[in-house]
Amino acid sequence: MAKRVLILNGPNLNLLGTREKSVYGSKSFAEIEATCKKTCADLGFVCDFRQSNHEGELVDWIQSARKTADAVIINPAAYSHTSVAIHDALRTLEMPIIEVHLSNIHQREAFRHHSYVSTVATGVICGLGAKGYTLAIQALADE
Ligand code: DQA
After folding, report:
1. Which H/E stretch holds residue 138?
2. Three-state SS for 7?
3. In CATH terms, is domain 4-141 a member of 2.40.37.20?
4. pLDDT over 90 percentage in the chain
5. Does 103 sit in the ligand 1 pocket, CB within 6 Å?
């Protein structure tokens, strides 16, 4: 059966391409979605790509992943630094979890240096821009 990859994006990522381009790059959110879908298709994966500005909705989607996904890639955006609820939801999953950040959060403000997601992630990719999503999908091919 094809591997089902759930790709979750947190708040404000829908504004990519127009938001702080010097930090997050000029690719639009729709372009990143298209690249993720193509990368998944090339590897024979089924891709479910989502974005929400709401913490509870992300928690609901992570809970659903228990039955509907084989791996999760997540850019929790600002919730990385604040959300125990997302941390708790992710730790119920028995599947690979890859955390992605476009920017290198460790080079930025101190409040971005800690992520509640990193301790429950299988791996973390940050600072490589949109390519981080592609690398995360490719990493799942070896799982
Ligand atoms: C981000 C980094 C976060 O600190 C920030 O709140 C974001 C995006 C990134 O992809 O670099 O919204 O997750």
Report:
1. helix 131-140
2. strand
3. no
4. 93
5. yes
Q: Whose CA is nearest to atom 13 of ligand 1?
A: 77
| 3-class DSSP string for 14-81 | HHCCCCCHHHHCCCCHHHHHHHHHHHHHHCCCEEEEEECCCHHHHHHHHHHHHHHCCEEEEECHHHHH
- Looking at the CA of residue 108, tell me the nearest atom of ligand 1: 4
16-25, 57-66, 96-105, 123-132: least confidently modelled range: 16-25
| Cβ partners under 8 Å of residue 78, min gap 6 | 10, 11, 12
Does residue 50 carry a pLDDT above 80?
A: yes
Q: Is 112 in the pocket of ligand 1 (CB under 6 A)?
A: yes
Check whether 142 has a pLDDT greater than 80.
no
Q: How far is ligand 1, taken at its centre, from the CA of residue 77, in Å?
A: 4
* CA angle (101 as vertex; 99, 103 as ends), nearest 5: 160
Q: What is the pTM of this model?
A: 0.97
